[in-house]
Amino acid sequence: MIVLGSTGSIGVNALHIAKVHGLHVEGLCAGSNVALLNEQIKAFNPKFVVIGEATLAHQVVHPNVWVGEEGIARMLEASQSALVVNALVGFLGLKPTLKAQSLGKKVALANKESLVAAGAFLDTRSIVPIDSEHFGLWYLLSCRPMKRMCITASGGAFRDTPLDQLPHMRPEDALKHPNWSMGKKITIDSASMVNKLFELLEAQWLFTCKAYDAFIETKSIIHALIDFEDGSSTAHIAGTSMQLPIAFALLGEVKEAVLPSVDLTQVGSLEFRPIDPARYPVWELKNALLEAPKLGAVVNAANEAMMAHFLAERCSIVGMAKGIVKAFEAFEGQAPQSLEDVFALDKDVRAFCKNLY
Description:
7-stranded parallel beta sheet, 42% helix
């Protein structure tokens, strides 16, 4: 297999599963963590390596190093692997997804932005999502008629912050996730609830159901639920490690323990909360986005642009969210009709958001 984003959390866990099950790793791609990449090269002896930053290429201990977006495309073309793990962060992960699909490869997709921005133009039949929520939904599927698919949210760093304090929260505060440690972008997406908005949209592209929704479960052991037409509901309960969905994505079927089962008697009690737009302003977009899913391209571009403002402390987390809503309203009538439209719209939305602060 090829692993894009090998030094991130998903990439590291994917390589762990590969090592345990003896999977061959033909290629690795990392952004700037050369030290870890070199350790991975030593452990897996890949044929191809790509580094995100050209200035770091000379530090990579490998005879065949390519660079950046062009390097990823070359590696995908040269590889024999039928499986590509795309754990890249952000919109830059879309082109590798498209390239892999054009080459007939299966994509184990952790890059949410691919589906969010261009779900209408991807072949979801060759995509296996690496995500605990979508894995949970898939695990619960049965032949019985479904009424609603639900996924859960942790609530992020600000789930208990007094509302009047939200405008004063700094980027370092947003990175203090209450349940686990993740990368910078996804942790801030969790704090703003953009991550869950994206996951609902992904679910709509991946599955067929009448309705989709989400709520907060503070301990993050329930990942997904399905309500059936007969009035019953089922829930997927598992530990918070990503190794279980990754194992299924890479192996197809898993018949041995990847994680210990959750002991509910030790958990004791669970707490559920609705997602309040007063705390998470982007949640105002949920219904409109699900009704016009191609506009995910707008929300994705706006989120990345507004996050840059937030990280530079030009706006608060509330201002960031409100900027995303403004962009959605400004481009609401411009749903892309082609992949070319997706990339053009992405540029236009970023330019719009750049001028907000």
